Amino acid sequence: MQASGDEPVYVISVAARLAGLPSWVLRVLDQQGIVVPGRTDSNRRLYSDNDIILLSRVRELTEDEERGGKGVNIAGVKVILGMETAWRERERQWERRVADLEATLEEHERASSRPSDSESPDLALATLSPTQILPANGR
User: Fold this and answer.
1) HEC states along the chain?
2) CATH at residue 57
């Protein structure tokens, strides 16, 4: 049985090691509401795979520039993560809108590719019944 990305399974020491951050930073991030882990019945923090990914992003943003990071403080991290979340949501909305427009376009193309009576007189005659073609008196 495989755990989902949202299932909290890692204690703080393991999560810190996986994310490359000290445990105290994870506690601060929890207090600031940036990365809020699940909790056990005894109130121990448990982190999910998605939390580890988010923690790694925090590490990337907060590391010194000499180490390849951006050197952003906690307040900046909150802003950047919020903007990234909003961007991903907007991107999903656009993808849904594009898919809807493509489906509508396909429907219109299918409808316009069907010959109408005025475009194909032979087809229009073929769809008429014999009583519609011949006069009622048989002539």
Assistant:
1) CCCCCCCCCEEHHHHHHHHCCCHHHHHHHHHCCCCCCEECCCCCEEECHHHHHHHHHHHHHHCCHHHCCCCCCHHHHHHHHHHHHHHHHHHHHHHHHHHHHHHHHHHHHHHHHCCCCCCCHHHHHHCCCHHHHCCCCCC
2) 1.10.1660.10
Total structural domains within the chain = 1
- What pLDDT tens digit does each residue of the chain (139 aa) get? 456 789 999 999 999 999 999 999 999 999 999 999 999 999 999 999 999 999 999 999 998 877 777 789 999 999 999 999 999 999 999 999 999 999 999 999 888 887 655 555 555 555 556 665 566 665 5
Look up the domain containing 106 and give its range: 10-113
Residue 53 lies in a domain: yes
- Look at residue 131 and tell me if it is in a domain: no
